[in-house]
Amino acid sequence: MTSSTQPRLRSPRFPVLTTKLLAPPARADTLERAAVDQRMSDGLAGRLIVISAPPGFGKTTAVVNWHRTIADQGWLLGWVALDAGDNDLARFLTYVVHGFGVLGEDFGDDTLSLLESVQQSGWHVPVTVLLNELERNGQPVILVLDDYHEIVEDEIHAALTYLIEHLPASARVVITSRTDPPLSLPLLRARRELSELGPDQLRFTADEARAFINDVMQLDLTSAQIEELERRTEGWIAGLLLAALSVSDAADPETLISAFGGDHYYVVDYLAEEVLSRQPEELQRFLLDTSVLDQLSAQLCDAVTGADSGAETLARLDDANLFIVRLDQRRSWYRYHHLFGEFLQSRFRREEPERWRDAHRRAANYYERERLFHQAIDHALKAGDHERSAGLLAETGMRTVNAGRSATLRRWFAALPDELIEQRHELLAIRIWMLMMDRDFAQVTRALDHAERHAGDAVVEQQGGALAAARVALALLTGDPDGAVRLGEQALTELAVDEVGVRSNLTVHLGTAYRMRGDLAPAIPLLTEGMALCEQDGNKPAWLIAASQRAIAWMTIGDLRLAYDAFREVIAIEADLGLTNLGFAIASHLGLAEILREWDRLDEAEEVLARALAVLERLDDGEQFGTRLYGALILIRVRCGQEDFEGALAIADQAMRDASQTDLSAWEFERAAAFRARVLIALGRIDEAQLWANSIPPVDLPLHSTREITYQILVRLHLAQGRLDEALQLIADARQLADESDLRRRLIELDVLFAVALEQAGQRTAALRSLDSALSMAEPDGYLRAFVDDGPLLWPLLLDLRQARPAGARWSTTYIDQIIAAVGLPQGQLEPAPPPAVIAAGATVEPLAEPLTERETEVLALLAEGLTNQEVADRLFLSVGTIKRHAHNIYGKLGVNSRTQAILRGQNLGLLR
Fold first, then answer.
1. Interval 858-913: pLDDT, tens
2. How far is 152 from 497, CA to CA, in rounded Å?
3. For 243-370, where are the E strands, in sequence order?
4. Max mean pLDDT range (14-23, 662-671, 757-766)
5. Which of 17, 352, 405, 533 has the fewest CB atoms below 10 angstroms from its CB?
């Protein structure tokens, strides 16, 4: 888009400002910067160019001037000038589509038609349609998202991440921002699809400073004076501009230059004072009054100032180049240079607080009339119009809670007085849930007590259900499932049937509490009921959480195949709703990884974990640490399955360091320490593991699921120390409880441990009987790692059972063959039968339908040496991602699901020496 192109506006939901879609016109008096232009041109080889620097580094100007140098290469330029009001998913995507509108009159119509329902249905579908439209159009286009630091909504970051990662070859995105945008920059950087320019690339060199001051600004300073200015401002473009403007009117430039000192931010404050004080009084008045605005037009300026001279004054400022940026050729829309605008606001607020508030009040009135509510709320808060702000917050706050946007809530609540919050029952409940998201449990408790004691009978009556649900959630998050069950059951009996929203959350929390304490008989129907209530209430995020918890319950019982299908269904629905990067169904991703690990599909489990942990890292919410810890613990078990015990220990050590700096519940911290002890046992560092055992509270029966891991690892420690009587007693007690609760997964794990302990105690017949029981329960759901992870003592038992299959055995020899194949011992130690997924028993080895490539054969050979993916990548000078893609292709061609099976299949086919 050239700066003179007028876009066609097609938003059905709200007015779209034309000026936000116009690139600022290039000025004839700007400095040519060949190095910056070349760096940006080189960035066209990738998908994304990020220009990230503090205000005043010339980010926008750099993009505008660069496009002049490449315009003859056929690249079209789309532009979106972002502001705080664009923190609405539908609004943001609408502007993105209009930004790409330079591709043609009808471009984006299909996408725009879908944006009406984006808040309900999610962004995934419209963004996919937009990508398809870009692919079909095929013209080379660059979309500039200017001032992206204004965007703070996670859902928008997720949508833009997906858009960038799937851009067709004809499209590029350029982002200017004061901070690095929270997108998938590491992934793009690793793929060499990201070009970055920061302060070091943007600041003026000494030669550029000299050319700017003497040629562009037409001053006549000596080389020494310019070098001093350049040194004191550190090449900061805005600082040099302000300095040049001050020096141009100074009677004694040498004295002015020598007065610069200290940090350049102080220098800018000094120069801004000098510039502002030199303007006529009426112009100073206009500058201060309108500094509260992110964008300036004659109509908006008149609404804030109460005058009718906006058009004339804006033209005057433009002619004087007084820190104002023209947004269109018609000279209708402008904005202040950010640095100058921030200075004006700071002075205005400090010296004339009442007038400053009134200007914000007028701006809020204007934006509310224009139905731009986000800007209206922000201006109303700054104006001190708390009643209006509180009303809007009461109406929209729970939706913000459900979306997980605690940072936005914190900002809004911080601006409201406590007495006003306590007068509105909706705000009390919203604030409590905000504190819950921040894991500020002490504050949550105080807020709940305060709400129930002091808010008044009417408030407690109206919000009693929401407050009770918050208490249940608090008990869950602090590791007290018994308390959560007690509170939840009581609250459900007191809650009105028609309070669907609160009832849905409460039912989900209660079902989760039952699941956490291992009482799954009531957990599953409660979670199923919670899902139905969430669907009735239209609360898709809570539905995803409930569905994930129900699948975890099935997995805990031992129904791996049922849980696997449920996890996949939840993940598919999450993707359809466009919520993939918001973490609502993250437990399903982690549960899926846990099942894949159990099925010995370790590489797949690692890939699922990597995606899930990347989402959690991007969310960067304190309340997500427990979930991140769960993912780390699964990854520890994956590393152990890959026999990378040192890598597993490094992950465990990091988890413990993170846990020590986070407000974790006691059971979360204990779980992290227990997994670290398990790795120490595998490494033979028994004395260190015993130190862990000495530090834990006694593990009493009946056994809660929150302490199940601790219990089993304590058994393994006793076995490693030869304390067989203690180990056998612990297993027997736990097995009886698991049998009474019909927890098949726990029974399988305990029976395997029992077999190992009995074999170690010389009780071969009893050990075989225990292993027979475990196999009978495990085969229908395909358990593998439950047998493989417990060491060489189990393997002779497996062979004995296979050779002398007892009458009435409820397992097949084929299943034992699969377990033996997963063990992956060298042929000299054990002759495993090939797994049925690879070669049927007794069948002739058939040649591959599609042979391995030379590179794939090379990768397979290195994997057979026991190298990790990273070590293979280093050996072949490739990326880890490339090695994983090769491994995926190898598995597909060999018809296997794991590294171990691939090696065995390769040996059978003669592909490995």
1. 888 888 776 777 778 778 877 776 787 788 778 778 876 566 667 767 777 778 76
2. 37
3. 296-297, 324-326, 333-336
4. 757-766
5. 352
Angstrom distance (rounded) from CA 564 to CA 544: 15
Give kind and range of the element (H or E) at residue 173.
strand 171-177
Q: What is the DSSP string of 707-752?
A: GHHHHHHHHHHHHHTT-HHHHHHHHHHHHHHHHHHT-HHHHHHHHH
pTM: 0.53
Q: First-to-last CA distance in the chain?
A: 61
Query: Cβ distance 492 to 503 under 8 Å?
Result: yes
Residues 6+ apart with CB under 8 A from 405: 153, 154
Q: What angle do CA 537, 120, 182 make, to 5 degrees?
A: 120
Closest residue by Cα to residue 894 from 854, 857, 841? 857
pLDDT digits (tens, 9 = 90+) for 612-659: 887 777 665 444 666 788 888 899 999 988 888 888 899 988 888 877
Q: How far is 799 from 808, CA to CA, in rounded Å?
A: 18
Say which residue the tokens 């433009």 belong to: 318
Which residues make beta-bridge pairs with 228? none
Greater confidence (670 vs 342) lies with 670
In the three-class reduction of DSSP (H, G, I as helix; E, B as strand; rest coil), residue 77 is classed as strand
Q: Structure tokens of 743? A: 């927890």
Q: What residue has token string 């239209």? A: 538
Helix, strand, coil percent content, the chain, rounded in steps of 5: 70, 5, 30
What percentage of the chain exceeds 90 in pLDDT?
17
- The DSSP 8-state label assigned to residue 498 in this structure reads T
Q: Tens digit of pLDDT for each residue in 543-599?
A: 888 899 999 999 988 999 999 999 999 888 888 776 666 667 788 899 999 999 999
The DSSP code for 384 is T
**Burial (CB count within 10 angstroms: exposed 0-12, middle 13-18, buried 19+), residue 167:** buried
The helix/strand/coil state of 333 is strand
Residue among 851, 850, 849, 867 at smallest CA distance from 859: 867
Helix (H, G, I), strand (E, B) or coil at 725: helix
Q: For position 681, what pLDDT does the model report?
A: 87
- Cα separation, 321 vs 310, in Å, equals 16
- Phi, psi at 408, each rounded to 5°: -65, -45
Contact at 8 Å (CB) between 60 and 24?
yes
Determine the Cα–Cα distance for residues 384 and 364; give it in Å rounded to an integer: 11
Mean pLDDT of the chain: 79
Q: Provide the 3-class DSSP secondary structure of residue 480.
A: coil
* CA atoms within 13 Å, Cβ hemisphere of 278: 15
Cα–Cα dist 85/489, whole Å: 43
Question: Around Cβ 565, how many Cβ atoms within 10 Å?
Answer: 13
pLDDT at 793 over 80: no
Angle between helices 794-803 and 813-823 (to 10 degrees): 150
Task: For residue 117, give both structure tokens.
Answer: 């329902």
